[in-house]
Amino acid sequence: MSELKRRMILNLMLQNTGSHRGAWRHPSTKVDELHDIKYFQRLAQKAEAARIDSLFIADGLSVEVKALQHGPILGFEPLTLLSAIATVTEKIGLIATVSTSFNEPYNVARTFSSLDHISGGRAGWNMVTTGVERTAFNFGLQQLPPHTYRYERAKEFAEVVLKLWDSWDEDALVQDKRTGIYADVQKVRDIYHEGTHFSVRGALNMMRSPQGRPLLVQAGASDEGKTLAAQFAELIFTVQNTLEDGQLFYQDIKARTAKAGRSLDSVKVLPGLIMIVGRTEEEARQKASELSELGSIERSMMSLSNLLGIDFSVYSLDDPFPELPDPSQVNAYQSFHQMVKKITEKEKLTIRELLEKYWNGSGQLSVTGTPEHIADVMQTWFTSGAADGFSVVPQQAFGGTEDFLDLVVPELQRRGLFPYTYTGASLRENLGLSRL
Fold first, then answer.
1. In a domain, 4, yes or no
2. What span is annotated as the signal peptide, if there is one (predicted)?
3. For the segment 252-266, what is each residue's pLDDT rounded down to a tens digit?
């Protein structure tokens, strides 16, 4: 994509209450709609009317029961939810998180191909490894597999899924009633994959999907995660909270992409953007203040324990934040571990101070202000080599999502940074990515 035609990509994270852990308690949150499919369908239609590129649903495969006291944990299974959303939308992309650590390639290839057919070519797979130990206990394991093993498995997992998606040629489906030929068997192939982690014969039991292959998305930022992204991903969701860190990550990913023999334009980097928008600065600050009074620091501490693999219940909230080992030595989420280590070593925070200052955004870029201010920040990152767009995460889903769509998106469009209309029928076409 040439510089003249370069435009911002906007992905919207679809959540039941928002990223702030106290948002479910806010007066504007309609708790009776948190598990109502019609609520998510309405949000999706609103996002499509604003011309958002894609919706994204995160996922987890375990729950800490005591955390349920403090608020809802995740929600619908992503592919099921997005299939329902696909029936009431026409253009917006649909990206679901599915772990390579606790699934099988054949099932994943089939379900995403199905979503691509159901949606008319709008599916994307956020390919992640799982770094939460309690999840392993739900799948017959006594401990979480090592970090290196998880990424080795993820690489082979992706290779198998791509082979399965490519096991049908574009024109393999004939459906000729006169000759009685349904498919040209010369254009459908068993894949005969034999590897370290998987043995898969194939072929996929579904014809090639509308956009050739569903979009591949990756969200890991460890060294192994960035290598995996450079080899396979087309969108990269990432977490940085300073422009300098964003630029360094962007440069690193693009260099790895070139080393992998891929075009730099074939990989788009989308940092997470946690935001609260108000029509005035005072209104935005008031919204932030209201949310801060509703958060549960106990719930935040549980989440921090899961992501870092450290039991923080043995500490007092006012203890100095414990010294963290080198990220390469931990078996949890290494990129998150690295981010927290950098913050706490620089600022010498207590546990409480870290949670209060950073945790509502989980360390991501967090902006509170007017539409113009938020657009200023986004434009700076976009034009300064730190982002190709953003994965937008409203702190408050009820009202906050609509505020972003109604206030910030039009400001970006007025500046010529974001288009007014969709340009194609598939997710790939709308993002300017090649059909595969």
1. no
2. none
3. 999 999 999 999 999
Please tell me the pTM assigned to this model: 0.87
20 is in an annotated binding site: no
1: in domain: no
Domain count, the chain: 1
In a domain, 3, yes or no: no
User: Which CATH number do you get for residue 102?
Assistant: 3.20.20.30
336 closest CA partner among 429, 218, 240: 240
What is the 3-state secondary structure of 147-188? HHHHHHHHHHHHHHHHHHHCCECCCCEEEECCCCEEECHHHE
Residues 359-375 pLDDT 10s: 654 567 889 999 999 99
CA distance 226 to 240: 14
Query: Over the range 43-57, which residues count as b (16 or more CB within 10 Å of their CB) and which as e?
Result: bbeebbebbbbbbbb
Annotated ligand binding at 32? The verdict is no
With beta carbons less than 8 A apart as the criterion, state whether 428 and 435 touch: yes
- The annotation status of 151 as a binding-site residue, yes or no, is yes
Domain residue limits at 216: 9-431
Contacts 24+ apart (CB under 8 A), 170-177: 170/208, 170/212, 172/207, 172/208, 173/207
99 is in an annotated binding site: no
